[in-house]
Amino acid sequence: MRRTLAFVSTIAALLVSATAGRAADYAIDPTHSHILFTIDHLGFAKMVGLFGDFSGNISFDANNVPASKLNVSIKTGSLQTQFAPRDKDLKGADWFNVTEFPEMTFVGTDFVKKDDQTGTVTGNLTLHGVTKPVTLNIVVNKVGQNPLDKIDSAGFSARGMFKRSDFGMKTYLGAIGDDIDLIIEIEAKKKS
Amino acid sequence: MLENPIILAALICFLLGLVLSGLVRLVRSSAIASTVLPIIFLASYVLTYQQVPTFPPVGSTNKIFYIALAAALIGFALDLLSRTANYRKLLAAIMPLLIVGWIGFPRFAKPDVELMAIAVGLWLGGIALLWRLDTVATSPAEQNGGSIVGTAMLMALLLAFAPVALLGGSSTSLMLCLAAVAGLAAAALWELLVPRNAFSASAVFGVGCGFLAMIDTVTLITREVDLVALALLLLIPYAGELSARLLLPQNRFRGRVRQVLVGTFAASPILLVMAVLLLRHRESIS
Q1: Cα–Cα distance measured from residue A164 to residue A97, given in angstroms and rounded to the nearest whole number
Q2: Contact yes or no for B17/B184 (Cβ under 8 A)
């Protein structure tokens, strides 16, 4: 009897530790997530744009960050800059070319933990038919149960930068900045 | 003023046009002289997009460069050969179809009636344009005005398309058009002062096909172009001829005066295009 109890308790402990070490899979909650970018306009101001339609999945384990996974897909046609003529231009063939390149994607390849709250994700950004590595600085805001819907959730803030010229978008370089600064706020819900 | 990228590109193209057109007058070859116009168009492209696109091209805007380059080379080869009239007419019919097919390829996976109607319209319009430009290039100057009128037609087409492109979601095409117009103006100036018959197949096909590729890109890929204004562009290559026949009896105006008058009539539809854009896009313009 004592042997049986010991065996059962060992199995239970293994199961608990296995569960604790397994990455949790999350889906991006689009209603509480935002992908914005800023770009210099003639040195006077930063123009702000956002993408309203995107989706993605995150596999995250706080105890084994390098094993995390991330993929995000953004509909380029959902671009908005609060000025319709400019949106038309930016969606056109000279810029994002949403007809030929309706999606841009980011797939994380290298996850580095700096401390309990911060780290970096390097991944492949595919934009305009070109794929280049981009690094995002990540802050893990909160991982826990959402008090409203009781679903386990995770919140991240990410900041990063890439040069549009690296992706063949060289229109009006000089007048319009080359550096695209990214502001990403993600809330993701654990998949059941 | 030079901080404005459009003005800077236009100035560079104008100077390039002046220098190249001057240099080609040192050699007695209209085939070489004609290459100045597609070189100006390609330079306008490079200044506008700030790159020679990768090959194979990624995306329709990159294709514009290679279409203009390939068409100019084919045109130059035709200029070096003799008895090419039939090949030129055949090319004028085939090239617009190939351009529509290549530029519009991503959309033809899901064709619909509207798309096919626009594609056919672009093809037929392209034929009408190249056919007319080739006629101007190959017929005697007394008949169609010669190189200066051919160059004026291209300038008028580019100038008229510039605002159509701007309102069609392509401010970049506006820059390309205006830079090319400035360069062609320099070439036209040389042609006016020291005629060298610098408007043959390489100019017709190089600039003509590059222009068609730009139109097809804005129409089929950006998809915001005003089709009415676009259709009116077709008046430009024919307005000069029609006006000359109706208003300019051969025995009353000759030589340079006739060329300038026909060129002016050829450019007149620009005002019509502008008026249509003002009426149909008042909100965007104001």
Answers
A1: 13
A2: yes
Whether residue B58 and residue A128 make contact (CB cut-off 8 A), yes or no, is yes
**C-alpha distance from residue A56 to each of A31, A88, B112 (Å):** 13, 26, 31
What does the alpha-carbon distance between residue B3 and residue A186 come to, in Å, rounded to a whole number? 39
B218 touches chain A (CB under 8 A): yes
Contacts of A7 (CB under 8 A, 6+ apart): none
Q: Is A153 near chain B, with CB under 8 Å?
A: no
- Rounded Cα–Cα distance for residues B210 and B216 (Å): 10
- Own/partner pairs, A120-128, CB within 8 angstroms, 24+ separation: A121/A68, A121/A70, A121/A158, A123/A70, A125/A162, A125/A167, A127/A96, A127/A101, A127/A167, A127/A169, A128/A96, A128/A97, A128/A101, A128/A104, A128/A167, A128/A168, A128/A169, A128/B58, A128/B59
Q: For B161-191, write each residue's pLDDT tens digit.
A: 999 999 998 999 999 999 999 999 999 999 9
Q: How far apart are CA B277 and CA B271, in angstroms?
A: 10
Q: Which residues of B touch A129 (CB under 8 A)?
A: 58-59
Provide ipTM, 2 decimals.
0.82
pLDDT in tens, B20-56: 999 999 988 889 999 999 999 999 999 999 999 999 9
How far is B54 from B67, CA to CA, in rounded Å?
A: 13
Contact A93 B224 (CB under 8 A): no
Cβ–Cβ gap B284/A129 under 8 Å: no
Q: Is the CB of B62 less than 8 angstroms away from the CB of A100?
A: no
Q: Does the beta-carbon distance from A172 to B59 stay under 8 Å?
A: no
Give B-chain residues touching A44 at CB under 8 angstroms.
none
Q: How far is CA B109 from CA A70, A96, A98, B39, B101, in A?
A: 31, 20, 15, 34, 11
Beta carbons within 10 angstroms of residue B106's beta carbon = 16
* Residue from A94, A101, A127, A167 whose CB has the most chain B CBs within 10 Å, to mutate: A94
A-chain CB neighbours of B221 within 8 Å are 92-93, 97, 99-100
Residue A185 · residue A33 · CB < 8 Å: yes
Cβ pair A174:B5 closer than 8 A: yes
**Quick one: CA dihedral A136, A140, A144, A150, positive or negative?**
negative
CA distance B147 to chain A (A): 32
Q: Which residues contact B277 (CB under 8 A, 6 or more apart)?
A: B163, B164, B167, B226, B229, B285
Residue type, B224: E
What global pTM score does this model have?
0.87
